[in-house]
Amino acid sequence: MKQNEDDMKNMSVLYAGAVALGLALVLTASQSQMNAGQQAADAVRIDTDDVGGVVTSAKGPEAGVWVIAETSDLPTKFVKIVVTDDRGRYVLPDLPKANYNVWVRGYGLVDSPKVQTAPGKNLNLTAVIAPNAHAAARIYPAGYWFSMIRVPE
């Protein structure tokens, strides 16, 4: 009789463990599907004359940073600048057909390496966090810092 009770307890423990394992696998699969769905929703849609993507850094998505596209392939130098949204997404819309150097600039960052691309492409960029305040301050012209001064009355 004691042997049967012990066998029943062992079977109950094994059954509970199997149920827990199955539940963990289902939850993990559900989370993966949610993350995939969220990434699909976060994907930047562009057309043939746009460049778009997501800007991230070591801290994650970078909100409020500038994405700069520049070309000298046109009769005059052409530059277009946009700002990322709260999820680091950007679109450089309606670009003339040319090859562009694209990079990221922002407060607390140093300029990222320039990446060459053309309209109609998705381009995820990596922002580079400034190693110190001095390096970050070198990016912005004196006029910017002058505009921050609040002169006492």
Question: What would you note in describing this structure?
Answer:
The structure is a single chain. By secondary structure, the protein is an alpha+beta fold. The protein has two domains: 1-42; 51-147, Immunoglobulin-like, CATH 2.60.40.1120. Helix content is 34%, strand content 27%. The chain is built from three helices and eleven strands, in the order αβββββββββββαα. It has helices at residues 2-42, 133-137, 142-147; strands spanning 51-57, 60-61, 66-71, 78-83, 89-92, 100-105, 109-110, 115-117, 121-122, 125-126, 128-129. The strands form three sheets. Strands 1, 2, 5, 9 and 10 form a five-stranded mixed β-sheet that branches. The chain has a four-stranded antiparallel β-sheet with strand order 4-3-6-8, with no helix packed on it. Residues 16-27 and 34-41 have low confidence and may be disordered.
Main sheet summary: 5 strands, mixed
Mean pLDDT: 80
CATH architecture of the largest domain: Sandwich
* Helix share, percent: 25-40%
Identify the overall geometry: globular
Q: Superfamily at the CATH H level of the largest domain?
A: Carboxypeptidase-like, regulatory domain
**Element pattern in H and E:** HEEEEEEEEEEEHH
Give the DSSP E fraction (strand runs of 2 or more residues). Answer: 25-35%
Taken together, the total number of domains comes to 2
Find the structural class using helix and strand composition.
alpha+beta
Q: Segments where pLDDT lies below 50 for 5+ residues?
A: 16-27, 34-41
